[in-house]
Amino acid sequence: MSLQQTARMENYKQFLCVFTLALALGFVSVAFALAWVLHFREGLGWDGGAAEFNWHPLLMVIGFIFLQGIAIVVYRLPWTWRCSKQMMKLIHAGLHVLAFILAVISVVAVFDFHNAKNIPNMYSLHSWIGLAAVILYPAQIVMGIAVYLIPATPVYVRAALMPVHIYSGLFIFISVIATALMGITEKLIFSLKSPAYKDSPPEAVLVNVLGLLIAAFGGLVLWIVTRPSWKRPREEITQGVSNYSTSPEDIKVGTAMTSRTEQESSLETRRRNGKAEESG
Predict the structure, then answer these.
(1) Is the dihedral of CA 60, 176, 227, 96 positive or negative?
(2) Which regions form coiled coils (predicted)?
(3) In the chain, which end has fewer C-beta atoms inside a 10 angstrom radius, N or C?
């Protein structure tokens, strides 16, 4: 095995460790959110009361944070590189749509609760940024489907809009993380009276840890999606390798071998061009 192949194997192991940690943090975040609303709050219901409000933080953590994070990094999973790019686009879009549906239900829950209790809506920074994210998110999904899922879209349009699509997606994700941290802090300040939030009762400690888990999950998602070496290879490379390999390690090695072959071919072409110029 060459040094380049060994390096790619190590690169795959690093990705696997980071992704596994992100996945674990995501699942633990959902578990903490569920424990919060079931053990410390009023449980779950749909009657305009506090139990209906509790759907808001729970579904936001599940949909707008966890599912959106997985949707963002799904292209980076080496074991999916055998799938066609079109299939991965459908999975990517499907996860985002599911996350949006859960986010909408959570927003309806909090508005129902506020209206039933005569609590004003849309007065806090948490609600302003949160609603902006909920509005921008479907716009991002529609643009992605229109530009990247419809075959008729010209290639130059896709290429031109790709930086915008990537930036806006990460911007929305970061905004959602920030909004969630503001929201859970706001909820604790309003809800904890005796003992108060400043006295660090068990509920406050659990929710503070939930905030740390959410922030760590978001940080790992951003790390995964910004590593150039973990980017999905070109379609023709993955299709060629998939005909002969079944494991992520084989895909990595095959990609490295293909890249090396392309480099050697390029060097050979330059040598020939140099000889032709000397002969001339």
Answers:
(1) positive
(2) none
(3) C
Which contacts of 121-130 are long-range, i.e. CB under 8 A and separated by 24 or more positions? 124/182, 124/186, 125/182, 126/179, 126/182, 126/183, 126/186, 129/175, 129/178, 129/179, 129/182, 130/176, 130/179, 130/183
Tens of pLDDT along 103-140? 999 999 999 999 999 999 999 999 999 999 999 999 99
pTM: 0.82
User: Please, are residues 104 and 69 in contact by the beta-carbon 8 Å criterion?
Assistant: no
Residue 197 DSSP symbol: G
**Which residues are paired to 196 by β-bridges?**
193
Furthest C-alpha separation in the chain: 91
- Give the dihedral sign, CA 45/46/50/53: positive
User: What tokens appear for 84 in the block?
Assistant: 């066609």
Cβ(66)–Cβ(30) under 8 Å? yes
User: What is the overall mean pLDDT for the chain?
Assistant: 86
Among residues 61, 15, 16, the alpha carbon closest in space to that of 35 is found at 61
Question: What whole-number distance in Å separates Cα of residue 199 and Cα of residue 45?
Answer: 29
The string of DSSP codes covering 1-65 is --HHHHHHHHHHHHHHHHHHHHHHHHHHHHHHHHHIIIIIS-----SSSHHHHTHHHHHIIIIII
Band (pLDDT 50/70/90 cuts) for residue 11 is: confident
